[in-house]
Amino acid sequence: MIAPHGGRLIERIAGKKEKEDLLSLRGKYPEIEISRELAFEVENIAIGLFSPLEGFLGKEDFHSVLKRGRLASDIPWTIPIVLDVDKEKAQEIGEGLFLLYEGKPIAWMEVQEKFTYDKDEMAYSVYGTLSEEHPGVVKVKSMKDILVGGKITLLNHVSSPFPKYKLTPKETRVLFETKGWRRVVGFQTRNVPHLGHEYIQKTALTFVDGLFINPVIGKKKKGDFKDEVIIKAYEALFKYYYLPETATMAILQMEMRYAGPREAIHHAIIRKNYGCTHFIVGRDHAGVGNFYSPYAAQEIFDDYPDLGIIPLFFRSFFYCKKCGGVVNEKVCPHEEEHRISFSGTKIRALLMEGKIPPAELMRPEVAKVITEFNNPFV
Amino acid sequence: MGEREVKIPEGLYKLIEEHLEELGAKSVEEFVVNAARVALQETTNRKLEIDEKEKEEIKRRLRELGYID
Fold this sequence. Notes:
The complex is a heterodimer. Helix content of chain A is 33%, strand content 20%. Chain A is of the alpha/beta class. In chain A, the strands form three sheets. In chain A, strands 1, 2, 3, 4, 5 and 6 form a six-stranded mixed beta sheet that branches. In chain A, strands 7, 8, 9, 10, 11 and 12 form a six-stranded parallel beta sheet that branches. Chain A has a three-stranded antiparallel beta sheet with strand order 14-13-15, with helices on one face. In chain A, helix 5 runs antiparallel to helix 6. The two termini of chain A are 38 Å apart. Chain B has one domain (10-64). Chain B has helices at 10-18, 20-23, 28-44, 52-64. Chain B is elongated and about 60 Å long. The relative contact order of chain B is 0.07. The interface between A and B is medium-sized, with 28 and 23 residues.
């Protein structure tokens, strides 16, 4: 089994006694209500998905991540996982802090430091732009002025609409071992599956023992498919077109940042912590608009020879009527007129009208599930 | 995040310099840093040990969720 990122799987979940002890401190320390996205980050740190992080980044790690895409210890890490608070709240915060979500304490934080930061520097380092057309830049600019670093201890898990599909890295590692999978490829998605996705997944699966698909559950852009639609669509695909012996699925509760290349590395690290040995990186992975060149998210892996997980790069796929199947430009000699592209816009337009896309683009069982929703979009 | 200097034999330095392109590095320094990072990544990673009792509990949950038989 592949080792976790940084060599050790982090687990910062309070046991019964520790939880009681920590909760008895309520009233003596400040509390802050955090967003759903931050609550996801807290839980992801606690269950080890963000190993080797044990909490929110401190100043040295924060600057190292922005400048070098690595923690101060030199371990690859590209996305700053931070807790932002306003100046007034920062003044109240001493050595500890309770993090609340929907009024309920979800974590205790041992505060190690508080520091100011440059939002433009953060946005540019992570997203490569300062354009306010980029949702990540807008988010950074709306962040509060002080960052608080320190270890967290989870007191309560964040509820999920899909508990059946919520697994910790420890659980996935036992799952892969039980299934006898030594080599596992991870696939991240925020979309309903079309035949192009299936082709990529199955091509990768041909070379390993197991396929692990992670639909991302969390805040999405307007026009994206709703979480429940993606889950139902994948359930249909699994039922009719996958073998349980070689493929499985679990959700990933996490906000999409659309940070393109840097986010691709982050996604690969998460899969490594789940126990995957390989990770699929497609065209414009985690991109948005035209902010990143189509294969920038693949090229960045050259800077991380020590990442410890093997990226599998895929280019664009299309259906070729002459080849009679899903192919790519490396294997198909036919002209453009014979090709049908997997245009997300085109598939979305058909589904919006309640129409079933052609079988060359989407499995009819998958399309049927999607059209059963009154409005499948965010 | 400071930097330290290390010394390597001149012959080795020149050999790396001659083969930079094949080694996929832009400079001798980049090659040496990356080689050290890869070696450390392989050396410092430890196998995750989960004790049998916990493993059985996890398997029970995975069975309940329908992941395994």
